[in-house]
Every structure is written in C-alpha cells, then in structure tokens.
Amino acid sequence: MSAGFPPLAGLPSEATFSLYYKKSSKTDGLESLMNDLLDQSIELNLLDTEMAIDDSN
User: Which of 1, 3, 52, 54 has the most CB atoms in a 10 Å sphere around its CB?
Assistant: First the structure.
C-alpha cells in the first residue's frame, strides 16, 4: 500500500489526492517520509552525495 492507496486498485481522483495532500501537509508526515526515502536512497548508493557548491555570486 502506497500513500494509503492499494496498488492494484484504480487511481484515486484528483480531488482525493488534493484532500490527502492538504491533510498530510498539516503534519510533518510528508517531511518525515521524504527524509526516510532520502536516507534509504543514500544507503543504497542511488544518489551521488558529493556535490560542489558555487558561492561566487
């Protein structure tokens, strides 16, 4: 189950996604999910975590 929706069921309407996003954005749930996915991606070496920052402007 992803985002509370069964994967084999039909896609929810735009209104359903909008309502889900509105409710989720009132908590830190989306930020927590993003941080978990980022941590997992780094652990699996899916992301290049070395970057250069150009601060010359």
Answer: 3
* 29, two tokens: 């749930």
Dump pLDDT digits (tens) for 29-38: 888 888 999 9
Contact 47, 41 (CB under 8 A): yes
Residue 1 to residue 38: CA distance in whole angstroms: 19
CA-wise closest residue to 4 among 36, 33, 28:
33
Task: Report residue 52 as tokens.
Answer: 């250069």
User: Which pLDDT band holds residue 23 (cuts at 50, 70, 90)?
Assistant: confident
**Nearest C-alpha neighbor of 2 from the set 19, 14, 15, 20:** 20
CA angle 41/28/25 to nearest 5° reads 105
